[in-house]
Amino acid sequence: MADYRNRTSYRDRIREQRQEHLEKLERDAKRSNRAAKLFMLLLLVGWFVLTHMDTAKADGSIIDKLSVKVEQNYGDSGEMLEPTITVSTSNVSVDEVSYSRDPEKWKPGNRVLVTVNFSAEEGYYFGSTWNRSAVTLDGAEFSHCGRIKDGETLVLKVYYIPCMVLGDTSSAGWDYNFKKAVWKEVEYAPGYEVKLYKNDEEVASKKVRTTTVDFSEKIEDYTKDKYYYEVKAIPMTSDEQKYLKEGNYVTSEEDVVNSKTGLPGVTPIGYNTTTNQGTLPIYGSNKTSTTGWYNPGGSWFYYDPYGRLATGWQYIGDNWYYFNDQGQMLTGFLTDTDGSTYYLDPAVGNMKTGWVQINGFWYYFNSSGRMQTGFLYDGGKLYYLDEYGRMMG
User: Would you say residue 52 lies in a domain?
Assistant: First the structure.
């Protein structure tokens, strides 16, 4: 009998345990269902906050359009200034501007990337969507736009083309026969406008991309008439005119200019041309002769022993001289056809060698008369001569 009661009690306990387990499973299921619903609710709330955050911050305070002007600034000749950046959108101000390249290294026509940070006034915020259509831009090219700092700052990136007023040439003169205008190159100048004058009346005008103009067809007799020209640096195309302004006119001098360097070059002593006479007066004498030196009107010429007019390099009386195609003896700097530079004494025309001081600078010409550049070892000392032959230091 006791065994029966024990078995009955055991079965009851088993039933009770099963019932308790079922009830626990039911409770767990209900809790899981509530957790799932709560999770979905949180997701919906989060989505709503994110997509309506701007509205939640302040009703009607969203900035979703921007109007910006990038204005060119022209300084003095050869100077490049940073642009002026303004915003006309209400409740927005320019906070910071930076460039992809140091302004001191800018070149006109070579675009730079400009980054502009805009700040919204208190209570206003930049919207979440920004693209090219949301920005009205004047004076630059759109690159990228987006907000940071939870909508309080907007970053705009644009491409800007630096601009400048072209400089003026530092040297304007002629080649040795006074028929070709020659001037020193102006930095960044695409081209030049040149006007030729005869007795103060304009007789020719040209636009060129070179630093020389041949006026031989317009110059008739420079010994009787006064010829000069004016030259200024200019942009040559409509695109160049967007970032370059023309320089000032520079009036030519009666100097001869080296067409390669723009530095003072070969200078004839006088302006007289040769004559077709068979005999020419010897300077300082009433006699006539077909050989030797002569100076009609200030220019020195030389006839060799056979009566021929000397041209080019000539070795006379232990000195070298140079005569142009018209027979005039030349003085000053001379760059020969092989690119070598020489110096001919301004007073007597003979070629110089060794150390020579010219316009306050020391130059060195070797035994052949060629001007030296770069490092030079002379007399136990080391010297440095720049690209124009001038001693430095």
Answer: no
| pLDDT band at 12; cut points 50, 70, 90 | low
pLDDT single digits (tens) 292-339: 888 876 788 888 776 778 888 888 888 899 999 888 999 999 998 888
Q: Is the pLDDT of residue 249 over 70?
A: yes
Q: Stretch 99-127: mean pLDDT, rounded? A: 94
Return the higher-pLDDT residue of 275 and 353.
Answer: 353
Nearest-angstrom CA–CA distance, 175 and 115 = 50
**Residue 267 domain-assigned?**
no
Rg (CA), the chain: 43
The pair of three-digit structure tokens given for residue 176, joined into one six-digit string: 């040795």
Q: Are residues 182 and 153 in the same domain?
A: no
Tokens at 107, concatenated: 């070149």
The dihedrals phi and psi of 53, each to the nearest 5 degrees, come to: -60, -45
- Does the CA dihedral 8-9-15-18 come out positive or negative? negative
Tell whether 314 is covered by a domain.
Answer: yes
The single-letter DSSP state of residue 235 is -
Per DSSP, the three-state class of 44 is helix
**Residue 302 is assigned to a structural domain of this protein:** yes
CA distance 334 to 257: 10
Instruction: Give the dihedral sign, CA 197/200/201/207.
Output: positive
> Do residues 375 and 329 both lie within one domain?
yes
3-state secondary structure of 100: coil
